[in-house]
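Input record, target 12 of the design panel.
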C-alpha cells in the first residue's frame, strides 16, 4: 500500500516492510520491518516515518491546490 511519496508498506508472510532510507556505500535501500502479530506497533512506526517524509517531501503546489 502506498502511504506517501517514498513510503510503500508491504506485508509479506509474518512481517510488514517499508523503506527507511538509502545506503550509498552499498547502493541499496534500507528497510525496516515489524511482525504482523503487532499491527498497532507497526502502524505507530510507519506513522513516524510518514511524518518524517511529510516534512521533507511536502505536496506539490498542483496537488495541494487540487485538494482545496
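The sequence produced for target 12 reads:
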Amino acid at each position: 500500500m502506498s502511504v506517501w511519496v517514498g513510503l510503500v508498506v508491504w506485508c509479506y508472510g509474518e512481517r510488514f516492510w517499508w523503506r527507511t532510507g538509502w545506503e550509498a556505500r552499498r547502493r541499496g535501500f534500507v528497510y525496516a520491518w515489524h511482525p504482523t502479530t503487532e499491527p498497532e506497533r507497526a502502524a505507530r512506526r510507519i506513522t513516524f516515518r510518514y511524518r518524517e517524509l511529510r516534512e521533507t517531501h511536502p505536496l506539490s503546489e498542483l496537488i495541494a491546490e487540487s485538494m482545496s
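Residues 39-56 form the longest helix (18 residues).
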